[in-house]
Design goal:
Among the domains are: 172 residues, Alpha/Beta hydrolase fold, catalytic domain (Rossmann fold), CATH 3.40.50.1820; 163 residues, no CATH class. Helices cover 29% and strands 16% of the residues. It is built from 13 helices and 17 strands. The strands form three sheets. An eleven-stranded mixed sheet has the order 4-5-9-11-10-12-13-14-15-16-17, sandwiched between helices. Strand 4 and strand 5 form a beta hairpin. Helix 7 packs antiparallel against helix 13.
């Protein structure tokens, strides 16, 4: 059994007594006050995947002794942070944060063990949140995702889950020709999330939550994990609703693609450096002995190589196997669970600044269109996006391919038409001047009420706070209604392709972009005919 830092455990409930302690199936946890809520941060939900558990699917956490002082998030999964910070994190990364709206002190009887700082009888709905980051970066510990403002605004128990990314969690290494498939499990990262969902279902009531009203929500690659879960039999019956924000729903590997990527990862590991970033000391040439930082380095190398070679699925993603037997975009693969999906108007226009040369970016768009669907992809690029001849055109094509088209496909294929689509159009003066508009991940500071994090500070550099607040005031009640009632309160997408537009307010628009919808309709997003 893996062991957390011993200084996080105490044999007593501590100075403030048992009012702050919640009993879970794996042991008692002690929370703390956090901006009108009670937070329990860094709770391990599975055995830490180290030593013999490296590259294995998650296993349920054995109970601990003493009270876990849940006062801080756990480690990031080993990854590259930025040039200033460098490599961060470890493999001790299977943990979650629970945030609960704090009950009024007027309903408490001070000084008794029966008194609780949260209301165990509240039966609030539960939201499990999955962070983004391309399945390579990110963490549930990001300040943007702290959750206390969202929990209070939507009156939910908020749970942010940390899970394995990169080589450690998002690549089926057992599909490599030279590796033992019995030693390298597939879908380790997806198994982390499933194990976390099972832990939350078992413990929701202890935090005043309703285990029969669990919504799984995520953005970008976290949204892709959400859409994958809509086709995952293991969690069927545990989840009452799904929310995918800018979900890269086509981010799923076939076994052959996973094998090709795993084979190349081994070539990189056994080869010489390409000069992009130095190989960390101790990386070695053995996946089982390499340091976590060495595996994060390998993740970065493979991620760079896979662009344009792995198509719409990307370098790191869940793979089709026993946990995920069907692609979520395949007709009939989704379970009949309410689904809220949406994208931002200018998802990847910001990628216009990713390349120093315009022609390089244009060629990347053309290559991507060909790999996406040789029959229909190039025609969509030519007809709807000016052949990608401008940076903005190329960026818009990539954003629609990765996020918008898959979202439309999923909403239109829902088995009982209980799917709702939205679009965020809001921008600010600084985003307009930079030419990136309602860009990818702008929805997060708006929805979470954290204008100080993520895209928030840059978006508000030249003003626009009132418009952002008005958009928050429109979006949060819709999310709250979906979380509580499994219906956001506008017409389902099946009823005339209705899309809710958020832009300093909100409005329902039937079929807001028919040209886009019709152009993408025949395009294969799964490697199979549409």
């Amino acid at each position: 059994m893996s062991v957390e830092s011993p200084n996080r455990f105490t044999t007593t409930t501590g100075r403030i007594g048992s009012r702050w302690v919640v009993e879970t199936t794996t042991g008692p946890v002690k929370g703390h006050a956090a901006n009108g809520a009670v937070a329990f941060r860094g709770i391990p939900y599975a055995e830490q995947p180290v030593d013999d558990l490296r590259f294995r699917r998650a296993t349920a956490r054995q109970p601990w002794h003493g009270v876990l002082v849940a006062d801080r998030p756990g480690d990031y999964c080993a990854q590259w942070r930025n040039p200033k910070t460098g490599w961060i994190g470890s493999e001790h990364c299977l943990w979650l944060n629970v945030v609960v709206p704090r009950q009024s002190e007027t309903h408490s009887t001070h000084g008794t063990d029966a008194d609780r700082i949260i209301d165990p009888e509240a039966r609030r709905p539960v939201v499990i949140y999955l962070h983004g980051g391309g399945n390579v970066h990110g963490s549930a510990g990001e300040p943007l995702l702290s959750g206390e403002y969202f929990a209070n605004a939507t009156d939910c128990v908020y749970v942010a889950v940390n899970y394995r990314v990169g080589i450690l969690g998002q690549l089926a290494l057992g599909n490599a020709d030279s590796l033992d498939a019995d030693r390298f499990d597939s879908n380790t990262g997806l198994s982390d999330i499933m194990t976390a969902i099972e832990w939350v279902h078992a413990n929701a009531a202890a935090f005043g939550g309703d285990p029969d009203r669990i919504t799984v929500m995520g953005e970008s690659s976290g949204g892709a994990m959400v859409t994958a879960l809509t086709a995952a039999p293991r969690i069927h019956g545990l989840v009452a609703g799904f929310i995918g924000q800018s979900p890269a729903a086509a981010m799923v590997h076939t076994p052959d693609l996973a094998g090709m990527l795993a084979d190349h990862a081994l070539e990189i590991l056994h080869g010489s450096d390409d000069g992009r970033r130095p190989r960390p000391e101790g990386t070695g040439t053995d996946l089982l002995d390499a340091t976590p930082q060495g595996l994060a380095w390998l993740t970065e190398q493979l991620n760079a190589w896979s662009w344009g070679r792995a198509g719409i699925a990307g370098g790191f993603a869940p793979v089709l196997d026993d946990l995920l037997p069907r692609h979520p975009l395949e007709p009939g693969a989704q379970f009949d669970v309410p689904l809220l999906l949406g994208t931002n108007l200018d998802e990847y226009v910001l990628m216009r600044w990713s390349y120093p040369r315009r022609k390089v970016f244009e060629q990347q768009a053309r290559d991507f269109a060909e790999s996406l669907d040789p029959q229909y992809g190039p025609g969509v690029l030519t007809g709807l996006y000016n052949s990608g001849r401008g940076r903005g055109d190329a960026g818009r094509f990539l954003g629609d391919a990765l996020f918008t088209a898959p979202s439309i496909r999923m909403a239109s294929q829902h088995p009982s038409s209980r799917a709702w689509l939205y679009r965020l159009d809001m921008s600010t003066p600084s985003l307009d001047i930079s030419g990136i508009g309602a860009t990818h991940a702008l929805d997060l500071p708006i929805l979470f009420g954290r204008y100080d994090s993520g895209r928030g500070p840059g978006a508000l550099l030249l003003g626009g706070r009132d418009r952002m607040r008005a958009t928050t005031a429109a979006m949060q009640p819709r999310w709250r209604r979906f979380i509580h009632e499994a219906d956001p309160g506008w017409e389902p997408y099946a009823d005339g392709y209705v899309t809710q537009i958020f832009d300093g307010g909100e409005r329902s628009v039937p079929d807001p972009d028919p040209a886009l919808r019709e152009a993408w309709a025949p395009v294969s997003l799964t490697g199979m005919p549409a």
